From TrEMBL:
The keyword Protein biosynthesis does not apply. It comes from Psychromarinibacter sediminicola. Residues 1-27 form the signal peptide. Its EC number is 3.4.24.-. Pfam families: Peptidase_M48, TPR_19. One of its GO terms (molecular function) is metal ion binding. Residues 37-225 form the Peptidase M48 domain. GO terms for cellular component: membrane. It comes from the Bacteria. This is M48 family metalloprotease. GO terms for biological process: proteolysis involved in protein catabolic process.
Length: 445
């Protein structure tokens, strides 16, 4: 599991609302893990289809933040704080959260605001809107890597904040989606109970959810009424519960202390118990016990690409680079279209010096998800090691652009422009980075 932390972004993306934004460098980032993302995809899929949308077009991502919040920044991304995933008690509660955010997308609540933002497309090209939203959702402007003009975090939160009318329509739509797919609608009322009474607290003490999703007694009563009307359509769904427990268990094992996890699963020989043991022992630097647990897990679930990926991560971070390449290679063979697994495989190949092979694997990963900064770093290394300094500079520029550091991105893009053939695909991509930098008011050096 990887955490990618944002950097300072000074941009005119939301020019009508504010001049620049401070994206916290330390407070929070996006957690990228193929197993967790697959689990969330499975949980969200029935709700996305119920809304008439395509599951292939919407990704559910986790923000590394213990506060409770969930939000959308565009029509393609739903972001949920890790704290909210760990807080929910059953799959239906997490599905209620996702259904509500899907409803905001389906009802066009945010897209109408985006139409007024002149440089939104340029920003989205590098994932900057996503980075901005993550920074705004943390509520920790003091952690910013520079001084913003104005109150950027507050301004972004205003942009993301829904009206009471939008919340009501999203609730109603979400409950319909849940009823259509046989998901217990009372779970939505249970989620709102987590926040009951918070509107009377000072903003500093509120969970971010309350600041972006206004609550009221009328809203809670309406949800309870709709839930009561639809509850007879609820059906058991063991698959959703399995994926929920798998995502929550892995997230918990990586974010809570190893001792806390082992106190609960040390003697648990179930599939998810062994997964959590492997992670906890790995985080305790006990490689032998971590490998014992993961090997027992793979004996139980042979060929599972996500458990193979976890074994590769354990080996790579324990500096068993050859073993990691073998495990990641097996995972990539089992899931050849999973970009995060391909990225891990490429990382392991770089570590053992197979740079030419790594280049091909990492380019496959980039083609499927070009917003993974760690993958872009490894891809730049592979290009440099194979003697293509122009492409190494280009990919480095794109990595800094994704992270929101457009000033440094422009420096590397200028270098790429000077090294790559004029008019080539790479040269044009470097020009895209420079265009994004100019849109943010950064002059070419």
């Amino acid at each position: 599991m990887a955490r990618h932390l944002g950097h300072m972004l000074r941009t005119a993306v939301f020019a009508l609302a504010f001049c620049s934004l401070a994206l916290p460098a330390l407070a929070a980032g996006v957690v990228r893990d193929p197993d967790i993302e697959r689990a969330l995809k499975e949980i969200a899929k029935p709700l996305i289809t119920a809304a008439g949308l395509s599951p292939a077009q919407i990704k559910v991502l986790v923000v590394d933040d213990p506060n409770l919040n969930a939000f959308v920044v565009d029509s393609r991304h739903i972001l949920i704080h890790s704290g909210l995933i760990l807080k929910t008690k059953r799959a239906e509660e997490l599905q209620a959260v996702i259904a509500h955010e899907v409803a905001h997308i389906a009802n066009g609540h945010l897209s109408r605001r985006l139409t007024n933002l002149g440089t939104a497309n340029t920003a989205a090209r590098f994932g900057l809107l996503l980075a901005l939203a993550v920074g705004a959702a943390t509520g920790h402007p003091e952690a910013a890597a520079g001084v913003a003009i104005g109150t950027g975090s507050s301004a972004t939160r205003v942009f993301l904040k829904h009206t009471r009318a939008e919340e009501s329509s999203a609730d109603q739509a979400a409950l319909r989606y849940m009823a259509m797919r046989g998901i217990d609608p009372t779970a939505m009322a249970d989620v709102l109970e987590y926040f009951r009474g918070q509107e009377v607290l000072s903003e500093y003490r509120q969970d971010p959810y309350v600041r972006t999703h206004p609550l009221s007694r009328d809203r809670i009563r309406a949800v309870e009424g709709y839930a009561a009307a639809y509850k007879d359509r609820a059906q058991e769904n063991p698959a959703a519960n399995y994926w929920f427990l798998r995502a929550q268990g892995k997230l918990s094992a990586f974010t809570r202390s190893p001792g806390w996890t082992l106190n609960r699963v040390r003697n648990d020989n179930s599939e998810l118990g062994l997964m959590r043991q492997a992670i906890a022992y790995h985080r305790s630097s006990d490689k032998a016990k971590a490998l014992t647990a993961i090997n027992r897990l793979l004996a139980m679930k042979p060929g599972d690409p996500y458990y193979l990926e976890l074994k590769g991560q354990i080996q790579l971070e324990s500096r068993d680079f050859g073993g990691a390449a073998n495990s990641y290679g097996a995972a990539a063979n089992a899931a050849p279209s999973e970009p995060l697994i391909l990225a891990g495989y490429g990382r392991a190949l770089v570590a053992i010096g197979r740079h030419g092979e790594a280049l091909g694997v990492l380019e496959r990963a980039r083609a499927r998800d070009g917003t993974d900064p760690r993958m872009l770093r490894d891809l730049a290394v592979a290009y440099a090691k194979t003697g293509n300094n122009g492409m190494a500079s280009l990919v480095t520029a794109e990595r800094y652009a994704v992270l929101g550091n457009l000033k440094t991105a422009a420096i590397h893009a200028e270098r790429a422009v000077g090294l790559l053939p004029r008019g080539s695909r790479g040269w044009n991509r470097a020009q895209d980075v420079l265009s994004a930098a100019r849109a943010a008011g950064i002059e070419r050096g």
